Fold each of these.
Amino acid sequence: QVQLVESGGGLVQAGGSLRLSCAASGGTFSGWAMAWFRQAPGKEREFVASISWNSFRTYYADSVKGRFSLSRDNAKNTLYLEMNSLKPEDTAVYFCAAKDRTYYSGRLFLDQHEYDYWGQGTQVTVSS
């Protein structure tokens, strides 16, 4: 059974940094495309960033480009999201997601409905 467990969320002042982690178990992490999504109160879940199975390709939402950095360690079955220059509008529950059966194509997936597995989320709160 696949499990994704996020950690690293918390309360931070505007301009600060956080590093989120997503630990995967129960599947072939190294073959998955991975992504982070977030959901703010009263809003729909939105795409944040995606990374291919081999880390060769990444893609970021315009709202986080230049401030967030996505990486993965396939040896540790872990996905990371380094978040810098945080803004109050980054406040949300952050979810990691895994896309299986990519057949090592290197594709990126931006639509949440394409993802097969989800974590429970970790809260990020940025105070002004």
Amino acid sequence: QVQLVESGGGLVRAGGSLRLSCAASGRTFTIYAMGWFRQAPGKEREFVAAVPWSGSTTYYADSVKGRFTISRDNAKNTVYLQMNSLKPEDTAVYYCAASRLYSSYYYNTRNEYHSWGQGTQVTVSS
């Protein structure tokens, strides 16, 4: 089992920044990639960003490219999501997820992830 705990959500004005963190514990050796998803009220959970546990490749949804940056600290088993130039449409609950798939094209679908955090609320006011 892998446990994931997110932190760093909050309320910010449009144009502002937030950094989310996700700490993994438990059977972390089963993790090959980490991702962030988000879910706004009345909408499906959608992919935001992903990073394999090794290498330098990162993946982003078109809606956040150039504004969000995903990174990882393997020594701390932690993944981060730096969110800049936030917009009201970024308002959602953000979920961290872990994948045990050794390889994937983009790690951008929910069924590629086997563990999920509890979510952290991000609210962007206009």
Amino acid sequence: QGQLVQYGGGLVQAGDSLRLSCAASGGTDTDYAMGWFRQAPGKEREFVGAISRNGGVTYYNDSVKGRFTISRDNAKNTVYLQMNRLKPVDTAVYFCAARRTYMASTYYYRDGEYSYWGQGTRVTVSS
């Protein structure tokens, strides 16, 4: 089984952009639908966005729609979360997740539907 290794994150100012990466090591993510979640201090983990196995379908939480974009490069076994126009409320630990599926165009938005998780990466947005 592969592992998910996350890269990116850090401290930025409101309005800045940041890109997170999630690489599958020891395996391939071509059979997996992928998702991004985040957990702010003192809050439950929430869904950010998801992408289907074939990359053709994406779905976002309304709070990030139009600002965040998920993409994937299956040749590199990597999924990306591009975050633009960041706000202080986006401050959280971000997690990528993977779910093996035979459905090429299906996405998943419940954390219980994912089997594999990245280690998390902290994003802090200052005002």
Amino acid sequence: QVQLVESGGGLVQAGGSLRLSCAASGLTSNNYHISWFRPAPGTERAFVAAFSSSNRTTHYAGSGKGRFTISRGSARNTVYLQMNSLKPDDTAVYYCAVDIGGILSSIRFHRNYDYWGQGTQVTVSS
């Protein structure tokens, strides 16, 4: 059983930065996606960014490209989301999720993910 714990959320002014962390326990597979999602109009979980372990690639939604960076820590079970130049529209609960054995074409679709964390609140004030 995989468990995910997010941390690092908080209140920041527009233009500021936050680094979110996702610590995964019980993750034994070498083929998985570990991703960040947040609620958005029309969907309960909009894709933000992903790390694919199979080819060590990173993937981003357009909203975060150039501002957000996803990376895996030296401990393979920790993933970070560095968020810079934050905007009030980035305000949301950010969820970490894992898709075991997923394919790259499905990486952006939240329904493919097997495990979810409880989320961490990010609030960006104007």
